[in-house]
């Protein structure tokens, strides 16, 4: 359902392994006019991840300082690591009227809903739980105990789908990306 008022900020959330990062990477390639926020995290980089591109990789102490200084719009602990959205770069892009996207988990999405009620919240859903498990294990970036923790969290996230303004099923990367862009453009005329 379209929102009552236009929003310049879209939040993409959904369970770990559903394909948020993959869809956002495709969106960055094909739709560079949409600005994608770079989060801070205490998680160590995966092979190929670059500081300042996929994430700002920070220590737990640095993250705590960012929280104390009020530098993060929202933040959350997820599967043993901390994640947060830097406030200043997002505020600059919003002030400039640019369409902006955050890719964050459920607790963060709820915080954004509270602080920026005009934000448009999109839930990326898997075709099935079995496919979600296949994708998370198939990515091969986490050991079995971390995959189990992320799947536990995925069940909680799936139960919150109804809190979102729109649901996009990631059955196909190209189709899901196009549907997401359609929503971003619908809320950012
Ligand atoms: N539509 C799709 N069909 C099949 N495989 C997909 C699809 N979308 C993503 N994948 C694969 O699923 C795996 C997880 O994708 P990705 O890392 O983008 O998920 P994520 O939601 O960003 O996860 P996390 O929240 O843990 O970072 C990757 O191996 C990716 O290539
Ligand atoms: N609340 C926030 N969640 C975030 C942020 N950046 C990323 N995330 C989410 O964390 C999990 C795990 O990410 P991963 O890269 O370790 O697989 C995933 O759901 C991301 O969407 C953030 O700034 N705030």
Automatic annotation (TrEMBL):
Residues annotated as binding ATP: 14-21
Q: Kindly state which keywords UniProt assigns to this record, in alphabetical order.
A: ATP-binding, Cytoplasm, Kinase, Nucleotide-binding, Transferase
First-listed, main subcellular location of the protein, grouped into a coarse class: cytoplasm
Which GO-annotated molecular functions does the record name?
A: GMP kinase activity
Domain Guanylate kinase-like, residue spans:
7-185
Q: Where in the cell is it found?
A: Cytoplasm
Q: What class of enzyme is it?
A: transferase
User: So what does this thing catalyse?
Assistant: GMP + ATP = GDP + ADP
The record's EC number reads 2.7.4.8
Tell me the domain of life.
Bacteria
> Which family does the record assign?
Belongs to the guanylate kinase family.
Role, per record: Essential for recycling GMP and indirectly, cGMP.
Protein name (Swiss-Prot/TrEMBL): Guanylate kinase
